[in-house]
Amino acid sequence: MKITDVRLGHISVPLRTPFKTALRTVKSVEDIIVRVETDTGNVGYGEVPPTGVITGDTTGAIIGAIEDHIKKSLLGMDIENIEEIMLRLDSSIVGNTSAKAGVDIAIYDLYGQLYNAPVYKLLGGYRKEITTDITISVNEPDEMARDSIDAINRGYKTLKIKVGKDAKKDIERMKAIRDAIGYDVDLRIDANQGWSPKEAIYALRKMEDEGLHIELVEQPVLGYDFEGLKMVTDNVSIPVMADESVFSPKDAIKIMEMRAADYINIKLMKTGGIHNALKICNIAEVYGMECMIGCMLEAKISVNAAVHLAAAKKIITKIDLDGPVLCSEDPVDGGAIFNESKIVLNDGPGFGIKQVHGVRYI
Asked: What DSSP string runs through 13-70?
């Protein structure tokens, strides 16, 4: 099974409601679809969200990286030699982790097809069903409380609350939500790098004093500020998770050696795909640090790949893969079944993607 072509297309999927964080507001998923074709007729699918404010990868940059660099390095490669493919993929261009992730996902899809097995079984096969949280966008406190009640009515037991725009108002937001939903639901908060270390410590200590029972806080400070992240971790009792601080296995090692965080959030668009995400899982196992698997605002193809990784590895104990349920429609036939908080994998070969509707190929 040899690679004969890498084709790119664009897909647009509207969201149920606008997605708001400390960094951006999004109304629809506008992603690049990667289609890797082979001489056997097998096709592998990948997906790339342009998330410039987080990864630096724009639509034009993704297309250029794949068309001008990645594609040329992989044509003619045999899928069974996945190690060499990944070495070439990593060295084809500096950075551009999202573009690499889209191709990496398509390659793993084909790898599973080659051996007629679902990817999660090839990677470890730890479980077949996982449970995700759902994200509550940052808005006024009363609106966030209403959104939280709606999520609970849909069956969610864990909510991920977006904060980070104003530390004092973030406390009001969390109080309003906890007052509205009670204490039977777990609350995680994600500041998306929105606080300074001192603001984070102030806000989190206040939430502790208010008895809001926060499960964890994700990336309270700027991604490059490892020392600030450690300062927060050392000065609050709420567990701290590193997200934008960890793009690579080297970043993960540094965070773990410094004990700058309590958890690591793995996202395929940051790591460059499954190949490097597996390395982070292995490192986390050595250091004994549990991981979350997360996603950008993505449709089903790339989130489906993250589901397979989560199902494969025991070290991934927290799931934040709500992208498809935030979308108002699903353009993908096949793959895992997303039923609100419950995600169930099927045993089709690869990632089980059969067809993607509405793709405008470039």
From this structure: EEEEEEEE-SS-EEEEEEEEEEEEEETTS-EEEEEE---TTTT---HHHHHHHIIIII
Confidence class of residue 22 from pLDDT cuts 50, 70 and 90? Answer: confident
What average pLDDT score do residues 66-79 get?
98
Which two three-digit tokens encode residue 166? Answer: 């104003």
Taking residues 80-105, what's their average pLDDT? 97
Mean pLDDT for the chain?
A: 96
What pTM was estimated for this model as a whole?
0.96
Which is nearest to 195 in space by CA: 187, 179, 206?
A: 206
| Structure tokens, 275 | 């190949």
Question: What pLDDT, on the 0 to 100 scale, is given for residue 165?
Answer: 84
Q: 12 with 30: CB under 8 angstroms?
A: yes
Residues with Cβ within 8 Å of 32's Cβ and at least 6 positions away in sequence, in order, are: 8, 9, 10, 11, 47, 48, 49, 50, 59, 62, 63, 66, 102
Structure-block tokens of residue 190: 């994600």
Average pLDDT over residues 103-115: 98
Distance CA 24, CA 15 (A): 14
Measured CA to CA, the distance from residue 271 to residue 268 in angstroms comes to 5
Q: Helix or strand or coil: residue 1?
A: coil
The rounded distance, in Å, linking the Cα atoms of 346 and 127 is 11
Catalytic residue IDs: 162, 267
